[in-house]
Amino acid sequence: MADNSHTQSHHLLAAIWAALELPALASGAVTFTGHGNLPSYYAVTDLAAASIGAAALAVRELAALQGGAQAPVCVDRRLAALWFGWSLAPVGWERPALWDAVAGDYACQDGWIRLHTNAPHHRQAALDVLGCGPDRQAVEQAVARWPGAALEAAVVANGGCAAQMRSADDWRVHPQGLAVAAEPLIVFDSQPCDAQAGLSGTAAQPLSGLKVLDLTRVLAGPIATRFLAGYGADVLRIDAPDWNEPGVIPEVTPGKRCARLDLHHAPDRAVFEQLLTGADVLVHGYRPEALARLGYDEAYRRQVNPGLVDVSLDAYGWSGPWAGRRGFDSLLQMSCGIAEHGMQAGGAGKPVPLPVQALDHATGYLMAAAVVRGLIVKATQQRISRARLSLARTAALLMTAPGDIGAQPLAPVAADDYAPELEHTDWGPARRLRPPAVMDGMAMAWQRGASDLGSAPAWWRAP
Fold first, then answer.
1. Could you tell me which residues come within 8 angstroms of residue 363 by beta carbon, excluding any fewer than 6 positions away?
2. Residue 202 burial (CB < 10 Å; 0-12/13-18/19+)?
3. What is the pLDDT of residue 70?
4. Are 311 and 370 in contact (CB under 8 A)?
5. pLDDT at position 1, please?
6. Which of 41, 82, 196, 229 could be joined to 255 by an S-S link, Cβ 3.0–4.6 Å?
7. pLDDT value, residue 225
């Protein structure tokens, strides 16, 4: 049954829609249903519903340009919250471990710090600073000898990923916190473009025919391109030959093709340049200037593909002293005060993060909405746009929305929460949660199951 009393969901949706700079929504454009909340001191369930709803609404607006009906969007808040966890349930096989054995929160001399060590080179960077091996007890002992700020700085300087736990008040006056607070939720810029809009979608799959070049890694960017693939886009993900993220790949690759290229190798660079020239959309999540160092800066991309919709992500924001810092959702929660607030509010003895990686997931859906907004602007204004988002700015939005830790919990996951058909993945059969947003005549559905990295050739499919 529809329940329009979800004021927090509507409030967050309004903030996101305003950031997208799209025409004001008509009354009743979106309806939120369902009861219950994830256990959090922030409105995580409302953020899930609002961010997914915004992405779906953007697709609806694009579909209307192609002759589709502007059907209302119905967002199931409970399913939206479940999608912020894991949407895939393996049948007869197990998902690889999500976290490296060293990753986690550690007590230091003056508080807490989090080490993110899922990537082997990030783990080694931290261990080299600590002077110990990959044994958790040894890491605990070594971290305990360090002040938090000093260890964070040393690990980051060595190419690793770490975040000292700060309070929201500390972050508010921190140079990076100040920089993020001054940034819009989504940074847009645009310029005139003579390229054709290239809209060739169908009523059921408004993004069909769209070529999306995906240069993203865990987790926000892959969520964005998963959403785009769900509405018909041809998503081609490119990874380096040695990159892997086994714990999340089955979750984020349905509908995509995944190839590998070495952009330090001339033949692979030639392939990539052809792909870039033929793409409609580029979604990238490397650190700022990473593509420029490879010779593919924004000027090059505009030159070879003047009609490219370009959407990018970073962790700590696009201005300020940490603009180029490596970061992940769990680290942002430590830096900006989310984990410290959870600890203090709950009277806990250690950091209390969000129950899901909500910054990643929400930012992913905002990125998808920004892509679709770019297509709309290209079609209606003959302008090509670039959008930039960050986990830190999404965190700032969430921190304006307090949650009720004692609110009615979500009902446990049940068999009928999953779509009835099996998804045939590269690891075995699985079930995927039903779509959290529904529009009459448009279904989020993938033409192929989740696939492993490097399992497809690096070329665009023929029309």
1. 220, 313, 389, 390, 391, 394
2. middle
3. 80
4. yes
5. 38
6. 229
7. 98
Tens of pLDDT, residue by residue over 95-124, are: 988 999 999 999 999 999 999 999 999 999
Backbone angles phi, psi at 84, to 5 degrees: -75, -10
Residues of the chain with pLDDT under 70: 1-5, 196-198
Which residue is it, tokens 């890491």?
A: 139
Q: What is the pLDDT of residue 4?
A: 47
pLDDT the model gives residue 275 = 98
Residue 461 token pair: 């499919």
Tell me the C-alpha distance between 299 and 311, whole Å: 15
Which pLDDT does position 343 carry in this prediction? 98
Q: Using CA atoms, how far apart are residues 125 and 146, in angstroms rounded to an integer?
A: 16
Residue 373, number of CB atoms within 10 A of its CB: 25
What is the predicted pLDDT for the residue at 2? 45
